[in-house]
Amino acid sequence: MKIVGISGSNVGNKTRIAMDYTLNKAREEYPDAEITLLDLAEYDMVFSDGRNYWDYDGDTKYVTETIMGADAIIIGTPVFQASIAATLKNIFDLLPVNAFRDKVVSILITAGTPKHYLMAEQQLKPILSYMKAHIVPTYVFIEEKDFYRNEIVNDDILFRIERLVEDTVLLVDAYVKIREAKDAQYDF
């Protein structure tokens, strides 16, 4: 199983801290999984210009092809101006409309205030649904107050992250079994 974590911003560190914790938990619990972190702050991404993702080169090609090769994607994004980060939106624009077909996608949000907790429901989930993702229904919302000295200090958040990882992997396994049963119905 290939799991790709996306730290969806090129500024700040809270989302990266949360993604590091999340992917470390995934590595502990699922040592056979191939787990990759794509921290968008570490890549030189170009803006989408309408080409197919495989026509780009450099970091843009690597990031998009890594996402397309994943079985599960854990998206971490901060809330900026009551919306997703522009760097994450650019990733969606670079990918084809069916990019997340047969992929499980889970969400982790970092925000300075609880006022934007519905951003995932009103903005991110519709985009992922349009791109054909199997979305893990619950997501983790982490506020500024849940961090102290670059660590997550809220035990409830830590538990929810662990549950998010588990739900993501279980959903991948469930959809694999569903696809296998569906494929077995055909004689060719």
From TrEMBL:
List the keywords (alphabetical).
Answer: Flavoprotein, FMN, Oxidoreductase
An example Gene Ontology molecular-function term? FMN reductase (NADPH) activity
Positions of the NADPH-dependent FMN reductase-like domain: 1-144
Q: What SUPFAM superfamilies does this protein map onto?
A: Flavoproteins (SSF52218)
EC numbers, comma separated = 1.5.1.38
A Pfam family it matches: FMN_red
The residue ranges crossing the membrane are none
Per its record, how is this protein called by name?
FMN reductase
Q: Which organism is it from?
A: Lederbergia wuyishanensis
Give the organism's phylogenetic lineage: Bacteria, Bacillati, Bacillota, Bacilli, Bacillales
